[in-house]
Amino acid sequence: MTDYGHDLVFGAFLTPQNRDAQSPVRLAQSAEAAGLDLVTFQDHPYQPGFLDTWTLLSWVAARTERVTVSGNVLNLPLRPPAVLARAAASLDLLSQGRFALGIGAGGFWDAIEAMGAQRLTPGESVTALEEGLEIIRGIWDAGERGILRVDGAHHRVDGAKRGPAPAHDIPVWLGAYGPRMLRLVARKADGWLPSLSYLKDGDLKRGNAIIDEAAAEAGRDPAQVRRLLNVMGEIGPASQGLLRGPAAQWVEELTALALEDGIGTFILASDDPAALQTFGAEIAPAVRESVARERDRAGTAPASSRRGSAAVALRRPGIDYAKVPADLAADAVEPGDRAYGSVRHNYLRSGSPGLLLRPRSTGQVVGALGYALSQDVPLAVRSGGHGISGRSTNDGGIVLDVGALNAVEVVDPRTRRVRLGAGATWGEVAEALAPRGWAISSGDFGGVGVGGLATTGGIGFLGRRFGLTIDHVVAAEVVAADGRVLRASAQENPDLFWGLRGAGGNLGVVTWVEIEAMELGDVVFSQMTLDARDTSGLLQRWGAAVEAAPRELTSFLILSPARRGRNPVAQLMTVYAGDDTAAAVRELELLAAAGPLLDHRGYVLPYSGVVRPEERHHTGGGDPAVRSGLVTHLDEDVSRAFAMAAHSGTPYFLQIRATGGAAHDLAPDATAYPHRHQNFALTAMAASQSSLNALWDAEVAPHTDGLYLSFDTDTRPERLRDAFGDAGLTRLRHLKRAYDPANVFRANFPISPADS
């Protein structure tokens, strides 16, 4: 018996005929309604009686909601691999991860040549396919630095830009029959996709043997190659041979193919809606049940838990990979997995974790946390991965990534109460709320995760009008260090609720927060560039204008020091949180008077146009050192100190964010974030922590009053006192004693538990 332990998938293989162009679309919808997982179409671009398969796939993806779509198989000789790669990534993004790439080397060469492609021998076509796969995967690997060059005999790219990254790790299935193609499947593909009607007795066994041997030689576990099969037959009352008979016969024979020949995906070649209905609603569930029963009896390990020798060699000490909970194994990523490069880093930090767990429910978060704590390695928790301090990755440890918990749900339309999954990003939130005319103040970049910002502060473009993000959090769900799932609000666990709003990363894994959104229509968004040669004077004038402005106006300033003969400049990003353009222009003119105006662009647009959805793919960013501080005014002393730091040559990025306004409406002890009188947050970024510390401590820190931890990488203990104040830090230490006495959550500015 050959059973690789793949979860069973059932699909349809449909004809893209164009006599009735909507017929294949209706069949695809019927397949989805029948419960099938996959819809595939032949690809014969030279066939005038067919719709173009790629166009059809795109249309079907838009007209369905759940099924994965794929060519069966796409004709590479007539689809340039670099273009195919971008098209595939685009369709995967548009369908939210519902695309698979079934591809072949080409077979009908007279017709292919007639369409303008070069005729290849069988050997040349295999070489061309391998070259094409290298290009396709290279384009998808948007996280790899540098441009793509592949100098193949049949396909080449010379300096192609990589990207976009697909929404998920697109599986590549090859239609293959000959030994050389089968060995290519073993080395480079995710699946083998033959048609049963083309196979002779024993071909499945012989093909599996070739793939298994070649996979082992390449350091892969054979189970990493899914075995798919196009099946043809007839579902009818009487048995007339293999897959020609009643549903019970199909169940028995497909079960045998799964257990004895390792088939994990069955694709029915039929354009009969009744057959698709029976296959999806009756046969597929029965086969799954039958195979699961036999696997339980045999103790078959799931394919998701198996790795080849090459991947096993990259595993890190201190992690028992065999004990990863079964419900987390399929989505887990470890070194050697193709997805590893896209998830190992965060926005500004390079990482090399030994395992990334990606739970999809609160229950799985509990299981992931329990497993992580049983291992002898560091733990990091990640929501969006955009944090400046960068503690959401590590080296050799476990990352608990809640990115899949990204739902945005309206709980109460009357109060505008919204439940946000901790893994959602603020760009996604803004986009979801915009049609209702709602918004939530949330930083300045759409790629920031909800979980991080909504538990630390949230100095954003709407801050002076609406306050910090944490000021509008009304409830949260958190998994505590001991595995308890707790709800925190003013009524339930109010002490925990207080601490989560400012020091949440120290107290548990937040899975969702509930926030009361604000009513907001269009805003005015302004981008200015000012001459900053009089740096100190510019900062003073800009600061005074911001403080005097109505709360609708929030402005951020990025200071670029003089470099390579260029004068220093200040870039202002300003939001006037209202659609009164006349009032906005008056205030913006006052900001522009802070220094000689070099450029100005203004827009009227929804808040979702300012904080836009961004991709989650992070590649690290040089591991910068960052310091921050809060000040009440940009007076002469503060402005001179910040200007001196800018001109010292140590920082390469400096920013000042306006806070205040509505953020002052809460008492300092209302949340764990206590800074309720300061008007500006200062930030500087440099290559060396020691050099930046020396500069900051000598010149800027004496003028600051508190700091914003999310914008700081100085881990000296005194930073905690700057962040929370004496009373707040004492209270947080007692909370740590109650909720995390073992200091499990210590990766991000750890607060030590109070003594007993």
From TrEMBL:
This is FAD/FMN-containing dehydrogenase. Residues 349-520 form the FAD-binding PCMH-type domain. Its cofactor is FAD. SUPFAM superfamilies: Bacterial luciferase-like, FAD-binding/transporter-associated domain-like. Belongs to the oxygen-dependent FAD-linked oxidoreductase family. Keywords: FAD, Flavoprotein, Oxidoreductase. PANTHER family: BINDING OXIDOREDUCTASE, PUTATIVE (AFU_ORTHOLOGUE AFUA_1G17690)-RELATED, FAD-BINDING PCMH-TYPE DOMAIN-CONTAINING PROTEIN. The keyword Heme does not apply. GO terms for molecular function: FAD binding; oxidoreductase activity, acting on paired donors, with incorporation or reduction of molecular oxygen.
